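> call design_seq(struct)
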């Protein structure tokens, strides 16, 4: 009898213990959310679906990003909102399609594209208690359109929710070729002010057109103006010699600035938008990474990007905050090889397929224009897996708002869907419909891909001599990606009702007004 009672007592203690552990587990999971996880978005430039080892790359190895894919969620149907950089960045930060603000690739002296009254991802997270930073390429405009780069440069990131910014004002192939920290260009000397002009050249100043012998490698006519670091750029520039950047220094400077921000905010929830310049042109990887791929400068720039990613993840681990940090890794659009500079990206490609199994690339309405690598990584919270969910970068806004328990209003992020579960669980469904922006608008509905015809203008089959098919046409296009991943067989004529429904859906999305 005593043994029987002892057995019952022991079993009761076991149940209590298990229940207590279950409660502790639930409490810990809730505590993670209550603590508000740090959030890092790694935003690579022009990285194609097939440009990572974990996505089938040949001729280049990306072990640091592959670690994220192996231990996180690898997405196979994730999309940037647009096939070019400025529109994608606008959509990610506002949760709105870029056409709502007529967003397009900006010149280097463009005013701030995002209205300072607009709701943004950075503002939302700041309201939720986050310290926020953007480091790297900006290309969303700065100032009011009459910017004096020698004085305070605003409005900019600080006016749309970022506490700290360290930027390339536009991108590497455009002037001004200086770093801007918060509201100021760094290292400028008063007796040597910098001047920028996108309409005419400065008398007596060498350009890529007048002095091609000064160039490290040739450029097309558009990229043949101001020469900095042996590379000609878009736009004209004079002065500011002490402030001019050296392209090969990018990986160390940007990584250091990011890690300084992380170190400073290790005790507080933070959001870091780490916006790479790599692998955008001009490609000038540091000597540390030259020759590390078989594909020349473009492949070496991928290696450099991978190293930078690894250094920031290493910092999280050193500070013991990696398990309370949600990482999203992705790209702003599809790949491009020759985008204005003759750096042998085409000649040294070998068997590598930057777009993976898809057609098109940067600028294109075909699938490779917006279908990009995407990985979510959160040690101890996200279970490793592969997701086929359809997801857009416009969805980050509302999804992250839900993760940090912030209630959005009807006026903000009007195109953003709550895919919180999709970000954290590989076995969760994604969108039913997804809009893609390029020269025209396209719509995904399940495996069907519809490309709206261009109206009132002639469609060009190829993108400005870049050997990328534009995907634009003067007639409707419909593809069944389950049978035709390469978008080779247009089935629009045999599916007129479906075409009409998908066009009507695009029209209804376009008709939604910003409130």
């Amino acid at each position: 009898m005593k043994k029987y009672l002892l057995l019952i007592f022991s079993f009761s203690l076991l149940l209590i213990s298990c229940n207590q552990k279950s409660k502790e587990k639930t409490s810990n999971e809730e505590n993670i959310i209550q603590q508000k996880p740090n959030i890092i978005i790694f935003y690579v430039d022009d990285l194609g679906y097939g440009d990572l080892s974990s996505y089938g790359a040949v001729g280049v190895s990306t072990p640091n990003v592959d670690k994220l894919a192996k231990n996180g969620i690898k997405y196979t149907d994730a999309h940037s909102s647009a096939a070019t950089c400025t529109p994608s960045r606008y959509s990610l930060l506002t949760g709105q399609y870029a056409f709502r603000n007529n967003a397009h690739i900006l010149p280097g002296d463009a005013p701030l594209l995002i209205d300072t009254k607009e709701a943004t991802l950075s503002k939302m997270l700041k309201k939720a208690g986050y310290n926020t930073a953007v480091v790297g390429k900006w290309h969303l405009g700065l100032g009011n359109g009459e910017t004096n780069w020698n004085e305070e440069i605003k409005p900019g990131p600080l006016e749309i929710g970022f506490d700290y910014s360290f930027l390339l004002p536009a991108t590497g192939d455009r002037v001004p070729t200086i770093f801007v920290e918060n509201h100021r260009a760094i290292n400028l000397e008063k007796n040597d002010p910098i001047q920028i002009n996108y309409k005419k050249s400065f008398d007596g100043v060498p350009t890529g057109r007048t002095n091609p012998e000064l160039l490290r490698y040739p450029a097309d006519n558009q990229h043949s103006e101001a020469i900095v670091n042996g590379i000609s750029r878009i736009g004209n520039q004079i002065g500011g010699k002490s402030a001019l950047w050296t392209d090969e220094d990018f990986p160390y400077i940007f990584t250091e600035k990011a890690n300084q921000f992380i170190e400073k905010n290790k005790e507080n929830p933070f959001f870091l938008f780490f916006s790479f310049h790599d692998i955008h042109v001009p490609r000038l990887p540091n000597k540390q990474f030259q020759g590390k791929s078989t594909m020349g400068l473009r492949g070496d720039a991928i290696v450099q990007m991978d190293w930078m990613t690894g250094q920031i993840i290493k910092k999280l681990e050193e500070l013991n905050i990696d398990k309370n940090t949600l990482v999203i890794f992705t790209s702003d659009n599809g790949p491009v090889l020759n985008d204005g500079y003759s750096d042998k990206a085409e000649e040294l490609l070998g068997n590598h397929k930057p777009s993976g199994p898809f057609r098109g690339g940067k600028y294109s309405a075909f699938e490779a224009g917006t279908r990009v690598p995407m990985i979510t990584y959160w040690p101890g919270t996200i279970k490793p897996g592969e997701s086929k969910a359809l997801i857009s970068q416009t969805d980050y806004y509302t999804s992250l708002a839900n993760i940090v328990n912030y209630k959005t209003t009807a006026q903000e992020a009007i195109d953003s869907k709550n895919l919180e579960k999709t970000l954290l669980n590989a076995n969760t469904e994604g969108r039913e419909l997804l809009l893609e922006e390029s020269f025209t608008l396209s719509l995904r509905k399940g495996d069907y891909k519809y490309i709206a015809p261009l109206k009132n203008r002639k469609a060009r089959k190829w993108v400005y001599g870049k050997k990328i098919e534009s995907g634009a046409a003067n007639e409707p296009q419909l593809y069944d990606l389950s049978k035709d991943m390469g978008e080779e067989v247009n089935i629009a004529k045999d599916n007129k009702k479906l075409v009409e429904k998908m066009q009507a859906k695009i029209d209804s999305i376009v008709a939604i007004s910003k409130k």
